Amino acid sequence: MTFLCASDIILVEFHEVGRRMKACFIGHRNIDDNEKLKFLLIQTVVDLICKGVTTFLFGSKSEFDDLSWEVVTSLKNTYPFIKRVYVRSAYQYISKPYEKYLLGFYEETYFPAKLENAGKYTYVERNYAMIDNSTYCVFYYNENYIVPLKRRLKSDMLLQRSRLSGTKIAYNYAVKKRKIIINLFR
User: Fold this and answer.
1) Backbone angles phi, psi at 43, to 5 degrees
2) Average pLDDT of the chain?
3) What is the model's pTM?
4) Which stretch of 20-24, 65-69, 121-125, 166-170 has the lowest confidence by average pLDDT?
5) CA 123 – CA 28 distance, rounded (Å)
6) Segment 32-49, tens digit of pLDDT
7) For the chain, how big is the Rg over CA atoms in Å?
8) Cα–Cα distance measured from residue 67 to residue 71, given in angstroms and rounded to the nearest whole number
9) What are the boundaries of each domain within the chain?
10) What is the pLDDT of residue 9?
11) How do residues 16-26 score in pLDDT, each as one tens digit?
């Protein structure tokens, strides 16, 4: 299957002069209806490429990240100039063998400088960095999603603690930063 767009010549020019628009993918850990979502992702990524996006930023730890990577990777045959970048939320410094391993799946990997002292919320800061560096933010965000409550036993009292979804935090940040948001949750 070939995916072409009327602006392919313009895209080559963007690539040649180094003007790269970026898009990032952020979504809930679990996804529903993979086949339908995969179809929507293919349409979305091709549309983004036709608009001039050449670099795609990925996080980790979600089925949406995995599916997005799979779609972008499959489109590299048709659009060899697109670039996959893994934005790490852990391991500021990595060994050469681990870097080589990652570069078997991505063209580039990096650890954003502002994550250095982020503590246990590095994934939130990593998402912020991806959003800050993107023109487009592709989300799989269900606004009605409720993070399961964690229960802790403290002095024989069962306490419930609710948490915000990392995807919700990222989505709100992208809105605040006035990014172009594409939400594929339906």
Assistant:
1) -60, -45
2) 85
3) 0.83
4) 121-125
5) 13
6) 888 999 999 999 999 999
7) 18
8) 6
9) 8-183
10) 47
11) 434 579 999 99
Neighbour tally for 173: CB within 10 Å:
17
Residue with tokens 């599916």: 67
Gap between the Cα atoms of 54 and 117, Å rounded: 30
- pLDDT value for 88: 92
Mean pLDDT to the nearest integer, 108-112: 93
Taking the C-alpha atoms of residue 23 and residue 135, their distance in angstroms, rounded to an integer, is: 6
DSSP string, 46-96: HHHHHTTEEEEEE--SSHHHHHHHHHHHHHTTT-TT-EEEEE-SS-SS--H
Run of H or E residues at 28:
none
Q: Which of 169, 173, 151, 171 is nearest to 160 (CA)?
A: 151
CATH ID of 8-183, from 1.10.10.650, 3.40.50.300, 3.40.920.10, 3.40.50.450: 3.40.50.450
Instruction: Give the C-alpha separation, 81 to 19, whole Å.
Output: 12
What does the pLDDT look like over 37-80, one tens digit per residue?
A: 999 999 999 999 999 999 999 998 889 999 999 999 999 999 99
* Tally: H helices and E strands in the chain: 6, 8
DSSP state of 26: E
CA distance 158 to 111: 38
